[in-house]
Amino acid sequence: MVDKNMLLKNYYFYGKHADMVKALTDKVEEESGAKIFSNNVELFIYSAMVGLFYNHRTKPDSDKSKQTNILAEQFNGKNREIKIVFKFVTLLGNQDKYDEITRLNKTFRNPETDENYKAFEEYVLGGLEEIYDKLMIKSNTYYQDYLTSL
After folding, report:
1. pLDDT at 126
2. Which of 18, 126, 121, 132 minimizes the C-alpha distance to 66?
């Protein structure tokens, strides 16, 4: 269960989401060594924005047999970027659930809540699914193919 300390400890992707992260951060072309995303935390940040853009939220996979993680120290290195993205997601997400004033208060007066972090995680995972579905198609075999899909 995600909570307001989500970015202060190791974060784990499980099941199908772990598989997606591995596919998106592994080499897509052996010859050049090219990758779509250089690491899990970079994908995490980008996924949150994509999930927000497509308004795609999803719950974490419960299959704990497969996992990959982001270490807490990696979050520290990208703290500024993550906080900006977190505020964007908190402010612009849930437009159908909360009015503008409530979203402003949730973003700037009281952002450190379990509810905000739970929604943030759901946007991250939804964005991860969007990115995976759009990039990891069978016809992509070379790095240039992935760039074209992007």
Report:
1. 98
2. 18
Element containing residue 147 per DSSP (H, E): helix 143-149
Q: What is the DSSP string of 89-134?
A: HHHHS-TTTS-HHHHHIIIIIS---HHHHHHHHHHHHHHHHHHHHH
Question: Which of 36-40, 48-52, 142-146 comes out lowest in average pLDDT?
Answer: 142-146
pLDDT in tens, 118-130: 999 999 999 999 9
**pTM as predicted:** 0.90
Identity of the amino acid at 80: R
- In 3D, which of 132, 16, 125 has the Cα closest to residue 67? 16
For residue 7, give the DSSP letter.
G
Question: Residue 135's pLDDT is what?
Answer: 85
Q: How is 11-79 classified by DSSP, letter by letter?
A: EEEEHHHHHHHHHHHSEEETTTTEESSSSHHHHHHHHHHHHHHTT---PPP--TTSEEEE-HHHHHHTH
Using DSSP, state whether 3 is helix, strand or coil. coil
What would the two tokens of residue 97 be? 């659930």
